[in-house]
Amino acid sequence: MEKETIFISxxxxxxxxxxxxxxxxxxxxxxxxxxxxxxxxxxxxxxxxGDDDNTPPNKQIKTQLxxxxxxxxxxxxxxxxxxxxxxxxxxxxxxxxxxxxxxxIKLNGVxxxxxxxxxxxxxxxxxxxxxEKSRTEEWKQNVLSKPLLIRLLAARxxxxxxxxxxxKKSQDIMDVNQQTVIDEMKKHDCYRLIxxxxxxxxxxxxxxxxxxxxxxxxxxxxxxxxEILRWNAKGYKIxxx
Length: 241
Ligand SMILES: [Mn+2]
Prior knowledge:
The protein is an alpha/beta fold. The chain has helices at 18-29, 31-34, 58-70, 88-94, 125-134, 137-144, 148-168, 178-187, and strands at residues 4-8, 37-40, 74-77, 97-98, 103-107, 110-115, 192-195, 202-208, 211-217, 227-232, 235-240.
């Protein structure tokens, strides 16, 4: 069979988005099984408050991911800004491999840079400051040491607040900074970048060191539209499933 790699991101799975959960479980049982590797580029979950949270639909997702990896499909995951607390226990339970915030893979022999995308949004200074603080061991341990119920309530409150917070921000600072994109691609010596996060699916042409380059922005999953990026020896295809 032909070798295939699939890229997805920004599913934002949560208890109240049952259709997305259903679509993801179907994806794991169907398209994912035909692939060699699946890359989930962050925000698989709308909120992840610790690997000990087995409230629905987490347990079911973990079980299906484990069945997939047990069947021989490699699954790689980058943390997003919503699920950066995914840790070692989740990886053990699912058989997935966690990748760094920036990861370079060979795709059809071409160096390809993968990232969730929030690190590229450098115009959003308050967010970047929060990001830096929340990635320290001290911050994470402080959160993870709270009882699960407290974390569940806090996550609910945080989501409620961020809904209003986001509406006030201009559309521009929520997008990537073009110079940051170029700098990171240069730094990692890549002419192809795949990321999610911004929910602005598109394939951008750009120039890195005088050579043509591509930036693929993955789509968020919606209940009426799910796009996956499939890659095989012939090239790529964006498919609505
Ligand atoms: Mn995101």
